[in-house]
Each structure stands twice: as structure tokens, then as C-alpha cells.
Design brief:
two-stranded antiparallel ribbon, binds manganese (II) ion
Length: 306
């Protein structure tokens, strides 16, 4: 279905963008996987249904991305959902790392559909085991470097602190961007900086054009292997209401896709788009539709890097 106009785009089984299904990475250029886990959320739950909603909203995506000038879907497959354990984040992180290991071993870039943001810890475990510590390129309303929530250390506000502690990231090669909204105290974001991350807060990010943002990323990442994580709450809730911890005054879809496309040429070992909680979506499933296009752009970035 992915390359023909013979069958309507709304027909057929809803794999991501009508990609063929595959169980193993061998022979693939890229793999899309869902991680339907949301019991590490602190506010609105529901991101366990994110992969399903994003796949459903991806049905109209077509193989050629004119913005990146690539056949974005070429050689990619939808490899289904990774097994998770609702209510047990620690075990789920192990399941994610095990589920992604064959893809990491095969050096097949993965585009993960979340799931709350805790899932990135499992992803980074799998990828860092093969690539070594990674540069993080994060677009998110929050830095997700808190230590614990309600005593829980594996939570959707803590994954990047855990990842640094586990030696999975190179904070000095990483750039976090888009942080905004009320904080717990004046030093809140300094804890991320103390870990070694550079932060480009929301207002500073919006002051940059896409090329200037990409230059900041490139200057920071250098020749390191990178991971791109996109929390949908980076987008203004007017455009993406269906998320776990909404903050007002975020990016427009136009800005966000521009920032992502400007990263063409950076070599990413993996990608994710997380925190889509479809229960809260607006008419037309606008959040899921945008998340589908973000995942599609990630496939395009993987194609450009080949
Ligand atoms: Mn996040």
C-alpha cells in the first residue's frame, strides 16, 4: 500500500504510514516501533494509547517528503509494539532495552512512538550498549532531569538524570531545547545544567530560525552519535492538546517541523516522539496527526543520513 494509489489511504491495516510489517531488523533501513506504556506519568495518563493513535493518524502520509527531498519510507517497516508491564516501570525499561537490542545490534535506526517519556531510558540503554554514550538532542517543554517523583526514580520526569547516572549520554555533547512553564523553584532548570546539559529555553529557541538552531545542535553534538527525542508537549497545546503535562505558549507545528528538518545530515542512532495521550485530543485528532508527521520527518532524517 505504501507506494501505490490503487487503494484508498484510509483502507487496510493501520501500520505506521502503511509500512510493511517486520519482526526483525535484517534488511531494513529503519524501523518504527510503539511503546504503549504510561504508568510513569505524573498528571494526565493515557499515553499507552499513543502508538495506536499515531498509527491511525499516519494513514495519509505518502512516501516522498518534498521538504527533505527524500523517499522517507523507503526500506522502513513497522515492527509493532514492544512488550511492556503496566505498573512496573523498572521491568518495562528492561523489556524496552531487550526489545530494541536486535535493532541496535543491526545498526537500524529506530523511530519509537511513545508512551510516556520514561520509555527513553530503555531506548538509551539499548542504543548506548552498541554505540557507547550518545549525544542527546531533546525538544521538550521540560528537561526531565528531576531525581524522583513520589519516591519513584524511574518516572517520566526523570529519564535523563537516570541516563546520565548510567553513563548512557554525553551531556557535554547534548542540547535540550524548548523548556517553558512554571517550575518547582528558581533553581529547577539549573539541576539539568549541573548534569552538564546545555539548555535552550523556550523563548530562546523561538528567537532562533531553523538554521540557527541546527547550527547550535551541530556545534554541541560534533561528531558524536546522537539520539533525537521529541516530547509533543514542546508544541503549544492549541495545536497539540493531547499530552500528559501541557504548558501554554509553545512551538507551532511549522516551527517544530522546521527545526527538525534543519537537522538533516546529523546521524541519529534513534528517535522518539512521546507523550501523546489521545484521550485529550481535539477534533480531527490534531495531536496524533502532528505526531505522525514528526515520526515521518524522523524517518526522512534517517533517510537523509544514509
Ligand atoms: Mn518529556
Amino acid at each position: 500500500l505504501s507506494g501505490t494509489a490503487d487503494v484508498p489511504r484510509y483502507a487496510g491495516v493501520r501500520t505506521f504510514a502503511h509500512l510493511p510489517q517486520a519482526d526483525v531488523p535484517q534488511g531494513l533501513n529503519a524501523a518504527v516501533l510503539g511503546i504503549p506504556f504510561d504508568t510513569a506519568t505524573s498528571y494526565r495518563p493515557g499515553a499507552r494509547f499513543g502508538p495506536e493513535a499515531i498509527r491511525s493518524a499516519s494513514a495519509l502520509l505518502r512516501p516522498y517528503d518534498p521538504s527533505l527531498g527524500v523517499m522517507a519510507l523507503e526500506g522502513a517497516a513497522d515492527c509493532g509494539d514492544i512488550a511492556v508491564t503496566p505498573g512496573n516501570a523498572a521491568r518495562t525499561m528492561e523489556q524496552i532495552a531487550a526489545g530494541l537490542k536486535p535493532f541496535a545490534d543491526a545498526r537500524v535506526p529506530t523511530v519509537v512512538l511513545g508512551g510516556d517519556h520514561s520509555v527513553v531510558l530503555g531506548e538509551l540503554r539499548a542504543l548506548a550498549a552498541v554505540h557507547g554514550p550518545l549525544a542527546l538532542v531533546l525538544i521538550d517543554a521540560h528537561a526531565d532531569t528531576w531525581d524522583a517523583y513520589y519516591g519513584e526514580r524511574i518516572f517520566h520526569g526523570t529519564p535523563f538524570r537516570r541516563a546520565v547516572e548510567e553513563g548512557l549520554l554525553l551531556p557535554e555533547r547534548s542540547l535540550m531545547a524548548g523548556m517553558r512553564g512554571p517550575l518547582y523553584d528558581p533553581d529547577d532548570l539549573d539541576s539539568a545544567r549541573e548534569l552538564g546539559f546545555e539548555l535552550l529555553v523556550g523563548e530562546d529557541l523561538r528567537a532562533l530560525d531553523a538554521a540557527a538552531y541546527a547550527a547550535r545542535v551541530q556545534a554541541r553534538v560534533g561528531d558524536a552519535t546522537a539520539f533525537l527525542s521529541f516530547d509533543i508537549d514542546a508544541i503549544d497545546p492549541a495545536f497539540a492538546p493531547a499530552t500528559g503535562t501541557p504548558e501554554v505558549a509553545g512551538l507551532t507545528p511549522h516551527e517544530a517541523l522546521g527545526f527538525l528538518r534543519a537537522l538533516a545530515g546529523t546521524r541519529f542512532a534513534g528517535f522518539d516522539v512521546v507523550e501523546v495521550s489521545p484521550t485529550y485530543d481535539g477534533p480531527g485528532q490534531v495531536t496524533a496527526l502532528l505526531a505522525a508527521n514528526i515520526g515521518y520527518t524522523m524517518l526522512g532524517l534517517a533517510a537523509r543520513a544514509r
